[in-house]
Specification:
By secondary structure, this protein is an alpha/beta fold. The protein has two domains: 5-37 and 224-292 and 377-424, FAD/NAD(P)-binding domain; 45-213 and 295-373, Polyamine Oxidase, Chain A, domain 2. 30% of the residues lie in helices and 26% in strands. The strands form five sheets. The protein has an eight-stranded mixed sheet with strand order 8-7-6-16-17-18-15-19. Helix 1 (13-22) packs parallel to helix 14, helix 2 (71-80) packs across helix 14 (411-424) and helix 4 (154-160) crosses helix 7 (193-200). Bound molecules: flavin-adenine dinucleotide. The site of flavin-adenine dinucleotide has 35 residues, from helix 1, strand 11, strand 15, strand 19 and helix 14. Flavin-adenine dinucleotide is lined by residues 9-15, 31-34, 38, 61-65, 182, 234-235, 269-271, 274, 298, 300, 353, 370, 372, 401-402, 409-411, 414.
Length: 431
């Protein structure tokens, strides 16, 4: 008997995971508007590694992960055979005028890794006091009983928590969180406290940061086996007839031609702001929920312009934050040569989030603007309604994306949301 057909719209981590998890039970077609699957759509070539002579590709964004927080993603990578490697994301914090705030570095002794103050050159009374505040903060945040912070925003929680040292919160913690959540400080403070604490308490500071050794291209190659991928297909509309078992029509533009295909089920794995226009006519009541989910824009530049760093930059920790108190976000630059083993022997190359100074155009390799949902208590109500809509009997329209998982919309949440949909459609976790 032939399998039922299923369309997945969008090939970020959520769509790729859903398509892969459902490939045995359904005849799956994955549609992506970019020329390459979305997770790897913005990768850029960065020349060759001068030691190995191998070509180097840089993913945009890098997509780093931590073992304590990314349970399902680690399981997925293991099942797919994706190798992972450690990266160094320790930080150097400066004011926008170049004044020292805080420097820490990751040290390795045998198998153990730990964060501590950077080189003696950077030791100062101020740096030591920030270091002590950080140690205290991360030790105490693990002890917070999440059931006691249920109604608090993260901002409210910080205001009443005795371990919140204003200097550390404003100059170190908020710049880091604003970079991780890619939104402004006010939006970070509007996150439910339990979500941010859940992230901070998961050993982020202790176990360090990892990434896929061979980058997103390797993940995509493994996770696109066993089903059909249709790139360059910009979905315009989805037509759903309420009559039971009537096919769902997917209408899309490919190379300036309009095409149409029919499916038994559909998984919309785009971000919420892109899902709404697709189902405006077919499911207006759900569109209202999508329209309430806010998103933030952020830009990322990959470049070779070292003037972005305070001098001398060579001994700084890999991630350099520039903090201007009159702005709502820091500028954060990763020196990829220091952070990633595969890029160590390449010409200097940097990835800057939210540039606030000019990066030389002739040293720029890529400049990409991203959108990403931000979570607050109002958003959570609408997300819950979207989840409930999928539990209706005989439902055939499914949604997944990192905004529908638990916690911060990161890769882990994307995989969680795909597992939820796969489970509803009769496919179980292969791990
Ligand atoms: C700057 C930045 C840095 C980040 N760094 C990290 C990190 O280090 N670690 C981490 O865990 N997370 C990180 N994230 C978050 C992570 O990238 C997201 O959580 C994740 O990409 C969301 O996956 P998704 O599948 O839900 O959505 P997306 O990745 O947005 O995928 C949706 C896909 O749908 C496609 N699409 C949309 N509309 C249509 C249409 N009409 N037709 C066809 N296709 C369509 C899009 O092109 C896209 O490919 C970062 C995010 C940003 C913005």
């Amino acid at each position: 008997m032939s399998k039922p057909t299923l369309a997945v719209i969008g090939s970020g981590i959520a769509g790729l995971s859903a398509a892969w998890l459902l490939r045995n039970q359904y005849q799956v077609t994955l549609f992506e508007r970019h020329a390459r699957p979305g997770m790897g759509a913005y990768a850029v070539s960065a020349g060759t590694n001068q030691r190995t002579g191998k070509a180097v590709t840089i993913d945009i964004p890098l997509r780093v992960i931590t073992s304590g927080y990314y349970n399902e993603l680690f399981n997925l990578y293991k099942t797919l055979g994706v190798e992972i490697e450690r990266t160094d994301h320790s930080g150097a914090f400066f004011t926008h005028t170049g004044g020292d705030i805080f420097h820490y570095k990751t040290y390795t002794i045998g198998e153990r890794r730990f964060a501590f103050l950077n080189s003696p050159k950077r030791l100062s009374k101020h740096n030591i006091s920030q270091g002590m505040a950080a140690i205290k903060f991360f030790a105490e945040i693990k002890k917070v009983d999440l059931s006691n912070v249920g109604n608090l925003t993260f901002g409210e929680f910080l205001q009443q928590w005795p371990h919140s040292k204003a200097n550390f919160i404003d100059n170190v913690l908020m710049p880091m969180l604003s970079t991780i959540c890619t939104c402004d400080y006010d939006s970070v403070k509007q996150y439910p406290a339990s979500i941010i604490i859940g992230y901070l308490a998961c050993g982020v500071a202790k176990d360090g940061v990892w990434k896929a050794t061979h980058g997103v291209a390797d993940i995509v190659q493994r996770i696109t086996q066993g089903y059909q991928v249709e790139a360059n297909c910009d979905i315009q509309n989805i037509k759903i007839d309420d009559t039971e078992n009537s096919p769902i029509q997917v209408i899309f533009n490919r190379h300036q031609q309009t095409e149409k295909q029919s499916f038994d089920h559909i998984v919309i794995a785009t971000q919420p702001q892109h899902a709404a226009p697709l189902i405006e006519a077919a499911a207006p009541e759900i569109v209202q929920h999508f329209k309430h989910i806010k998103y933030a824009k952020s830009s990322m530049v990959v470049h070779r312009d070292d003037s972005i760093y305070p001098r001398p930059w060579q001994d700084l920790s890999p991630v350099c934050y520039s903090i201007n108190p009159s702005l709502q976000r820091p500028m954060a630059t990763v020196c990829l040569n220091k952070s990633m083993p595969t890029v160590k022997d390449c010409l200097p190359i940097f990835q800057t989030w939210h540039p606030t100074t000019t990066i030389a155009a002739d040293k720029t390799l890529a400049d990409v603007t991203f959108e990403r949902p931000v979570i607050n208590f109002d958003t959570l109500k609408h997300i819950e309604s979207i989840k409930q809509s999928m539990l209706k009997a005989n439902n055939r329209v499914w949604f997944c994306g990192s905004y529908l998982g638990e916690g911060i919309p990161l890769l882990e949440a994307g995989v969680q949301s795909a597992l939820f949909v796969a489970n509803q459609l009769g496919a179980y976790k292969p791990w």
